[in-house]
Amino acid sequence: MDNRLLYSKLESLPEHMRAEVADFIDFLVTKAQKNRERPQQQKVPKFGSAKGMFKMRDDFDEPLEDFKEYT
Question: Would you write out the chain's pLDDT as a tens digit for each of its 71 residues?
Fold first, then answer.
């Protein structure tokens, strides 16, 4: 977003609302600084953590009937 557009929108607000916008900007700056200081840690899945979540059917390797005409 263009800074001029933001400024024109800010100018159209009453003074008490401009103060709220300034407070919100301060909040966003603080939030951005915290995110830079503490990078997001990615969780590394542990081997076997999904055990039991998926079940293979007994006929998994059998040919599908939909493809019979191609064999």
Answer: 789 999 999 999 999 999 999 999 999 999 998 877 766 677 888 999 989 999 998 989 988 888 888 87
Q: State the SS3 of the chain.
A: CCHHHHHHHHHCCCHHHHHHHHHHHHHHHHHHHHHHHCCCCCCCCCCCCCCCCCCCCCCCCCCCHHHHHHC
12-21 long-range contacts, CB within 8 A, separation 24+: none
Spatial separation of the C-alpha atoms in residues 71 and 62, rounded to whole Å: 13
Measure the CA–CA gap between 11 and 1, rounded to whole angstroms. Answer: 16
- The pTM (predicted TM-score) of the whole model is 0.48
